[in-house]
Amino acid sequence: MLLEDEAAAYLRGLAGPGTSRRSRRARRQEYASPGLVGLMHAWPHTPALVYGRYRDLLAANPLGEALFSWLGEETNLLCAVFLKPEARAFYRDWATIG
User: pTM for the complete prediction?
Assistant: First the structure.
């Protein structure tokens, strides 16, 4: 089914570079609160990671770091899942994840 001209123009506008005030703003730095980091470190037997809005790693406890050591220097989970071959080994049911 083809879109009418008006609908196609609307979708192109959505996909194009943002011109809104919000899109021009720099991305706010995200962080894990000290209280949350302290809580995570109080769980020595549970892996814990905190990811931000864009799936950037903000904090991890030692077990979480060990479990996700395959990330290496990559701090963005989405980039790692799609770009690192180690992700296929980490996620046992890759067909469901990928």
Answer: 0.67
